[in-house]
Amino acid sequence: MSETLPAVAWHISTRSADSGANCVEAGPLADGSGRVAVRHSKTPEAATIVYTRDEWDAFVAGVKDGEFDF
Predict the structure, then answer these.
(1) Sheet of 24-28: strands edge to edge?
(2) What is the largest CA-CA distance in the chain?
(3) According to the 3-state scheme, what is the secondary structure of 9-54?
(4) Would you state the torsion angle of the CA atoms of residues 53, 39, 15, 64, taken in this order, to the nearest 10 degrees?
(5) What pLDDT score does 1 carry?
(6) Is residue 1 part of a domain?
(7) Comparing C-alpha atoms, which of 4, 51, 54 is closest to residue 24?
(8) Given CB 3.0 to 4.6 Å as the disulfide criterion, which of 32, 35, 42, 67 pairs with 62?
(9) CA dist., res. 26 & res. 36, Å (int)
(10) Cα(70)–Cα(28) distance, rounded to whole angstroms?
C-alpha cells in the first residue's frame, strides 16, 4: 500500500532544465516533516522517492563534495 503524498513545492534541477532529457524535480513535503520528495518531471504520475531530512542533507553534502562526479 502506498502512502498518499502531501503537497510538494516542486523545484526542477537547474542542471536538468538545460539537458532536455533527464529532468529531476525535488521539493519539501508540506506536512512539516522535513522530508523531501524527488521525481522525474516528464512522468510526474510515476513513482516518487521520499527522503528524510537527514538523508537529503547527506546527499546534498555528497554532491557539494564531488562524491558523485565521474
Answers:
(1) 11-12, 24-28, 36-40, 49-51
(2) 37
(3) CCEECHHHHHHCCCCEEEEEECCCCCCEEEEECCCCCCCCEEECHH
(4) 20
(5) 36
(6) no
(7) 51
(8) 67
(9) 7
(10) 28
> Is 28 in contact with 7 (CB distance < 8 Å)?
no
Cell digits of residue 9: 513545492
Q: Which residues pair with 49 in a beta bridge?
A: 38
pLDDT digits (tens, 9 = 90+) for 1-50: 356 787 898 988 776 656 566 688 999 999 999 999 999 888 888 889 99
Q: Residue 48 in contact with residue 36, Cβ under 8 Å? A: no
Single-letter code of the amino acid located at 19: S
Domain containing 51 equals 11-64
Domain contains 3:
no
Number of domains in the chain: 1
